[in-house]
Inverse folding.
């Protein structure tokens, strides 16, 4: 029988976007000893990111992939990290995340969220995607729920609040949603769908 440690150690998780969701998902999974993380983002660490993303002041201006790799190695030097500092598209997602068992969709914009979910579901038949939508701002933590939409699609969020409908993005609410995502990923890795 395969132990929990072995299952997690063999797992490969892709993280699409390293902002408020992705940086928190990555840290949670590294602390859980997931064997390999494939991380991808095109952006650099900016001052406005520091209120909810897992970066430090001395990392301002650096690529998020480089900065996150450094942070993850400090947390768990044994986790394998494959980093891609680039913009994800429907064309490159299958290649970049081809080894992943599960992909965490961690984008800000609705059209990018839709692109990654549709790409994974249509072009990567053995991969599960865990997406997040409706989690911006602050407020009722219990409104954030995890739903199994289909066999290969899990959605986290409150189904209401969007990034354009709030005046502030907070670490607390984004962190709650990111931990929902990480927990759903761990559940899939341990128990299947």
């Amino acid at each position: 029988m395969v132990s929990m440690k072995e299952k997690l150690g063999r797992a490969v998780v892709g993280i699409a976007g390293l902002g408020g969701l992705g940086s928190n998902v990555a840290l949670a999974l590294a602390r859980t000893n997931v064997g390999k993380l494939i991380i991808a983002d095109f952006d650099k660490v900016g001052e406005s990111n520091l209120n909810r993303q897992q970066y430090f002041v001395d990392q301002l201006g650096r690529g998020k992939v480089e900065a996150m790799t450094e942070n993850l190695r400090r947390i768990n030097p044994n986790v394998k990290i494959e980093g891609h500092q680039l913009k994800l598209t429907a064309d490159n997602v299958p290649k970049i995340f081809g080894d992943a068992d599960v992909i965490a969709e961690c984008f800000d914009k609705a059209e990018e969220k839709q692109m990654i979910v549709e790409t994974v579901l249509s072009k990567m038949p053995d991969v599960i995607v865990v997406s997040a939508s409706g989690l911006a701002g602050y407020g009722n933590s219990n409104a954030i729920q995890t739903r199994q939409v289909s066999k290969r699609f899990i959605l986290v969020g409150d189904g209401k609040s969007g990034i354009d409908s709030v005046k502030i993005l907070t670490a607390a609410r984004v962190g709650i949603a990111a931990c929902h995502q990480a927990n759903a990923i761990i559940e899939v890795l341990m128990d299947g769908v």
User: Anything to note?
Assistant: The beta strands are 12-16, 36-41, 80-85, 102-105, 128-132, 145-150, 153-157. Residues 29 and 182 are 6 Å apart (CA to CA).
